[in-house]
Design a protein that fits this description.
The complex is a heterodimer. Helix content of chain A is 74%, strand content 0%. By secondary structure, chain A is mostly helical. The chains are: A mainly alpha, B alpha/beta. Chains A and B meet through α23 of A and α1 and α8 of B.
Chain lengths: 530, 352
């Protein structure tokens, strides 16, 4: 059930009405039922996978939690009987048990994800090697089901399990409540990847109808639809044309495609997240933000703190830190400091963890080498900028430009173009092709032809460009205004007719100028694919 | 009243006014972007014109272009005093004809309903554009709902029939002066559902029909013919099946036999005009405006005159030209009819 389908609109409208009509204690069970109905639309067989993740994570979480409690009780009971060493040994034994439980569950669930998502990638690589060795025996690809949102719900569930293992909070005792945490439908298909302690109160609390909250939620949903339908899906026509014909569209067209894709991806992904957070807000459930005006970032590190925030923080908390401080890495750190010196040696574990994180980030986005190169490319530029830090400092000590407006604009533009360039790997989905297209920007000088003829033959007419330009201006303006606080709250403080006029116009613009219905292919949200 | 209550009251009033304005703007935009069928393709405007009529017809024709291009209610009135109307639109499928019949019978009980059988060849929905030409013009009723459900292609949505703005929103970029001109209402296109054509394109070549694997009409199509028969029986209306004398698309012998057998089994009258072209006096070098696909006015008048005599004889329809009110209404209609005939003929002369 696509977010942009009439069926989905009817589904959430019905849910909203029911949600505030049923007794408050029935609200979360209603959400669970709705989430599973929503998920069943993706195919009944998908329920098996989400069910397996739910049950195994719930069980493992409960066992780990019970172990925590048992250890605490045992130590309290035997406080006087046990020596320090015995206590330590007991703790160690229990810790290993908990660790084993967690690892089994992690392996099982990441295993499902790996098998379903990466089997064909592995087969393709094996076939590549076989082909190089001249073998004629190729492995055949498997027709595997990829359940909707598997990357998102697996990461969310495993985050929960690791937190339980760390003793961050207690396990959820009610299996149905836990099932809702895993399957909560608005976030199921494109995130954000929520933390249990962030979501718990909102998800299982009792919510009375509050006009302000509900209207804010509806406004957010509308804003998401505007971004998705008016900007992203209209831009998609141009992006597909530019990417689809790599013989014709070289040189300036590649640059154009880069910009178009940047806008499309941003409007698509943030639009989807707006709809997700808006739906949750209508239901009275606060949800963490996933974007913070990323295209205003002045550096690549900052960009990744502001783009897909929940994924970045997941990798930081559950992959980067564990790798950085694990025992083998501490040994590597010690060794590298000894061999390479304090200054360089201390960076080795950080960089090793970074490479691992970015490799996984890349492969998480797609089972293909272009995503791996994209991830490692990001890693390379982050490291490079860190290594260049002393140079920047010297530059800024010599030239007082750091606070100048034009310099900030330069930094923003530079970061934007760098991220767009890296994202070309996502566009062309072929590493050599991407490099070829990238280099054509500097060798094929066809800007005149592109502007006067080519860009008008991409399936976008003058009216499309006008809508896209207006939509982008609105997007930019809202982003600028949003730096001072919530735009919706600002509007709510004005006389009622102002916000009615603004959101009325936004609704009419979305209905009239949206790229939906017959004649447009229903475009999935880009992040649905993960 | 406290300030707080006053503020809340003001807010509620603002919200209500705001919503009314938004709905009004959306309604206006919907009218603006919906096709008006006032340009080259006028057929989509025919269905909606029925509702403005005084519904007291003796004969109602139901079917596709083979009825609204080939039969002239004005001739039936002038020559036989038969008050008739055509409820037809382009490629009107049999289930659409059924629901139009059902809707018509909610308004009136004519003596005879004439159904053109060509659409029996279609067992499934065909093209959205044609669906729209039939359905958009219908007023909301259970018949319209049924018609939509029976006609929708997989790519269509019911909600887009309820709010056509959702279907036609993208026309904002291709609006023409006629969209603004006819935003509040279109001009009348038909003459009691007849769409006048005075051009002449003689038949020079008749494309041969493709050989079909199976000449049987589909179950779905038959089921709607069964429903039509039942509906007419329930309402004590005589159902007459016809096949208009269009030379193509091919009306296969195998198809004709099936209809004949069905008519016989259900005690229905069936007349295939393709077998009577000589008696009618049709001359396909002068009586068709598109080389045999449809008749022009001159051919349609001949066919209608022939059918009028048949209706009087076979169905016992009476001459109503003595009814003053009806005669007055027809006087106005005939004036309009002949004015348009003159205009079109003058235009044809000019073009020639």
């Amino acid at each position: 059930m696509l977010f942009t389908s009439y069926r989905f609109l009817a589904f959430i409208l019905g849910l909203f009405l029911l949600y505030y009509v049923v007794p408050k204690k029935c609200q979360w069970p209603l959400l669970l039922v709705a989430s599973y109905i929503f998920y069943a639309f993706a195919g009944w067989e998908c329920l098996v996978f989400i069910g397996a993740t739910t049950l195994t994570t719930y069980g493992a979480g409960l066992l780990i939690d019970q172990n925590h409690a048992r250890q605490k009780n045992y130590l309290a009971e035997h406080k006087a009987d046990l020596s320090k060493e015995e206590k330590k040994a007991y703790k160690e034994k229990q810790k290993n048990k908990r660790f084993a439980l967690m690892v089994v569950c992690l392996v099982f669930n990441f295993g499902i994800l790996a098998v379903l998502k990466y089997t064909n990638f592995v087969i393709a690589n094996i076939n590549g090697v076989l082909q190089m060795t001249g073998s004629e025996n190729m492995l055949s690809f498997r027709n595997l089901l990829l359940p909707l949102g598997i990357s998102f719900y697996t990461f969310q569930s495993m985050g929960y399990l690791i937190d339980i293992h760390r003793g961050k909070y207690s396990a959820q005792k009610n299996v149905f409540k836990f099932a809702l945490f895993v399957s909560f439908f608005p976030q199921l298909i494109q995130g954000p990847i929520s933390r249990y302690d962030d979501l718990e109160k909102g998800l299982f609390g009792q919510h009375a109808f509050d006009w302000q909250t509900v209207s804010f939620g509806l406004q957010r949903i509308l804003w998401g639809f505007f971004k998705k339908l008016v900007i992203a899906d209209r831009m998609l026509i141009g992006v597909n044309a530019l990417i689809g014909d790599t013989d014709t569209y070289t040189g300036f067209y590649v640059f154009l495609g880069m910009l178009f894709y940047a806008l499309q991806l941003y409007a698509d992904f943030t639009g989807g997240i707006d709809i997700t957070i808006g739906i949750a807000q209508v239901l009275g459930i606060p949800m963490q933000e996933n974007f913070n005006r990323p295209y205003f970032s002045k550096g690549i590190k900052e960009y990744w703190r502001r783009w897909h925030i929940s994924l970045g923080s997941w990798f930081t908390d559950y992959l980067f830190y564990p790798i950085s401080v694990c025992k083998p890495m501490l040994k590597v750190s010690k060794f590298s400091r000894k061999v390479l010196g304090e200054k360089i040696g201390k960076r080795v574990p950080v960089y090793a963890a970074s490479i691992a994180v970015w490799f996984v980030t890349g492969i998480w986005h797609g089972a293909a080498w272009n995503f791996v190169v994209w991830g490692l490319g990001n890693c390379f530029f982050i490291m490079l900028s860190q290594e260049c830090e002393p140079l920047y400092e010297k530059f800024h000590a010599r030239f007082a430009v750091k606070d100048k407006m034009w310099f900030k604009a330069f930094q923003i533009g530079r970061t934007f173009l760098l991220m767009c360039s890296l994202r070309m790997l996502d566009c062309y989905r072929d590493v050599p092709m991407t490099f070829r297209m990238f280099s054509s920007m500097f060798t094929d000088w066809n800007i005149g032809e592109a502007v006067t003829v080519g860009m008008w033959n991409l399936g976008l007419g003058v009216h499309d460009y006008v809508v896209l330009a207006a939509g982008t201006v609105i997007l930019f303006t809202v982003s600028m205004v949003g730096r001072r606080g919530s735009v919706r709250e600002m509007l709510a403080k004005k006389p009622a007719f102002v916000s009615i006029a603004v959101f009325g116009a936004l609704f009419i613009a979305t209905v009239l100028f949206g790229a939906y219905g017959m004649g447009y292919d229903a475009s999935q949200f880009i992040y649905n694919q993960f | 009243m406290t300030e707080k209550k006053k503020g809340r009251g003001k807010r509620i009033v603002s919200v209500v006014i705001g919503l009314v304005v938004i709905v009004a703007v959306l309604a206006l935009l919907q009218r603006l972007v919906m096709p008006k069928y006032m340009g080259d393709v006028k057929e989509g405007a025919l269905i909606g014109e029925y509702y403005d009529e005084e519904k007291d017809f003796d004969v109602v024709f139901i079917g596709d272009c083979e009825v609204y291009e080939n039969f002239v209610p004005a001739t039936l009135w002038e020559n036989y005093g038969i008050n008739s109307y055509i409820r037809g639109s382009a490629q009107q499928l049999i289930w659409q004809s059924y629901y139009l019949m059902e809707e018509t019978l909610q308004y009136e009980k004519p003596d005879v309903i004439v159904f053109n059988v060509l659409s029996l060849q279609y067992n499934e929905p065909q093209k959205e554009a044609y669906n729209r030409m039939t359905i958009d013009g219908m007023r909301w009723s259970t018949s319209k709902v049924g018609c939509i459900q029976a006609s929708m292609l997989e790519s269509e949505s019911f909600i887009e029939y309820v709010f056509p703005l959702l279907r036609y929103h993208d026309r904002w970029s291709e609006l023409e002066p006629e969209d603004f001109k006819y935003i509040l209402g279109a001009e009348k296109v038909g003459h009691n559902g007849y769409y006048m054509q005075v051009g002449v394109v003689p038949v020079e070549y008749i494309p041969e029909g493709k050989i079909l694997g199976d000449y049987s009409f589909g179950d779905n199509a038959w089921s709607y013919l069964d429903k039509m028969v039942a509906l007419c029986e329930e309402n004590d209306v005589e159902l007459v099946l016809i096949k208009a004398p269009s030379l193509y698309p091919e009306w296969y012998e195998e198809w004709d036999v099936q209809v004949e057998e069905y008519a016989e089994a259900h005690n229905l009258k069936y007349i295939n005009f393709l077998e009577h072209t000589e008696e009618i006096g049709l001359d396909f070098s002068t009586d068709t405006y598109d080389a045999g696909l449809h008749l022009n006015l001159y051919g349609a008048v001949k066919l209608t005159d022939y059918f009028g005599a048949w209706l009087v004889e076979e169905c016992g329809l009476e001459d109503r030209r003595g009814e003053e009110e009806l005669s007055n209404a027809w006087e106005v209609k005939l004036e309009c009819f002949y004015n348009q005939k003159e205009e079109l003929e003058a235009l044809k002369e000019e073009e020639f």
